[in-house]
Amino acid sequence: MSHAVVNTYAYGYGISCGVLPADNAAVRDVEDALESTERSSEDFALGFARWALGMALVHRESPAERERGLAVLGQVRDMCLEGRFYQFSLAAVDVYTARERARRGDRDGAIPQMRAAIDDLFHAEYHLYAILATGFLVQTLLDRCARGDVQEAEAAIGRLAARGDEGLVIREVWLLRLRALLAGAHGDDASYRHYRDRYRAKATSLGFEGHIAWAEAMP
Known about the structure:
Layout: H1 2-16, H2 24-37, H3 43-58, H4 63-81, H5 89-103, H6 107-123, H7 127-144, H8 149-161, H9 169-186, H10 189-206, H11 209-216
Helix pairs in contact: 1-2, 1-3, 2-3, 3-4, 4-5, 5-6, 5-7, 6-7, 7-8, 7-9, 8-9, 9-10, 10-11
């Protein structure tokens, strides 16, 4: 149980929040944890180990690895539905499923699924994944850029900013990223550069390797 929980916090949360990269060493560690946990009959330990591996894999570049990650998260989802793991994990799994749909081009199908999952996450006060889910929704809306999408993205950012999570550094980093993306969608070059540079500086000062890479990829 300890092995599984430590891997979940170090890699499952660390990678999904943009603190750590989903590199080969991380995947090896979580796969080793899952292998050892599968020899136990403890459902919660198994759920944690699967969660960590799923989160690592859905952040990989390879479509095949992301597909495997979704399959592993699907196992976690089944455990939730069977009462063998935490119910609040359902919405977080649905968010990542929707994000992958969007990455494959089905933004119209992914966006309603993201909206519903975000409402569930905010209602359950599962703030960490509500932050990440808002980021995915905003990115997907701005990528689609249909009528009303930019306004909805702005409202989603406002909802996240209005949460009483002052001092939560993950939220601060994501808000800088999202405000840069929104400014770019509005064609406001000065605001875009302002928020992009603040985002890069914040990520670098914190040593958040995932965000550093994402920030450097912004034009």
